[in-house]
Amino acid sequence: QKEVEQDPGPLSVPEGAIVSLNCTYSNSAFQYFMWYRQYSRKGPELLMYTYSSGNKEDGRFTAQVDKSSKYISLFIRDSQPSDSATYLCATQRRGNQGGKLIFGQGTELSVKP
Amino acid sequence: DVKVTQSSRYLVKRTGEKVFLECVQDMDHENMFWYRQDPGLGLRLIYFSYDVKMKEKGDIPEGYSVSREKKERFSLILESASTNQTSMYLCASRDSGTTNEKLFFGSGTQLSVL
């Protein structure tokens, strides 16, 4: 069993839709949770970061963590064509030296105008 | 602006060749990483380095080695390339002094082994 499982894509939505991207993880030692966004032919870039249960909002993006069910989500409101990318969830154990992240498989999102 | 530079965007090699993938960062970061990215498998860690001349195996180190002689440069070496090493290779760096676990990635090297 993978330590982090991410809903497979691809996901295609119309512009303006609300997008929900989800991951589950297996190890309760994971304390830090991240979402990276990767545009085509580019490396991933950090989009959201949180270390606690609950919601964290940044503009149109909301990251949600539920540690009791080991579930993490990224919501995108009013999605735009520029949001078309692959989204990767990632997690890390607390105190893990060197920032070794465990990534999900990635979900490819396409927002159609 | 922060920059992680990978020497090649695309690379085509033959089975059995020795392959060097170079990565340079200009942020004075202590930690550097090599990942490979494959469809359906996400990013998998090959090797990482905490500091100059220090290295640690990641999850899939077999068939790879690394070199870190200078802080800014982290090289991935495929001793004898095989077709199952055809993949996108991503280098990343991180400042160990921050609490934010942000990795900075290069744009990747798409390696094809024929």
Write up this protein.
The complex is a heterodimer of chains A (113) and B (114). Chain A has no helices and eleven strands. Chain A has strands spanning 4-6, 11-14, 19-25, 30-38, 45-50, 54-58, 61-66, 71-76, 85-93, 102-103, 107-112. Chain B is mainly beta. Helices cover 0% and strands 52% of the residues of chain B. Chain B has no helices and twelve strands. In chain B, strands 2, 5, 6, 7, 10, 11 and 12 form a seven-stranded mixed beta sheet that branches. A three-stranded antiparallel beta sheet of chain B has the order 3-9-8, with no helix packed on it. In chain B, strands 1-4 form a two-stranded antiparallel ribbon. In chain B, a hairpin with a 6-residue loop joins strand 6 (42-49) and strand 7 (56-57). Chain B starts with a strand and ends with a strand. The relative contact order of chain B is 0.33. The mean pLDDT of chain B is 92. The chains are: A mainly beta (113), B mainly beta (114). Chains A and B meet through strand 4 and strand 5 of A and strand 5, strand 6 and strand 10 of B.
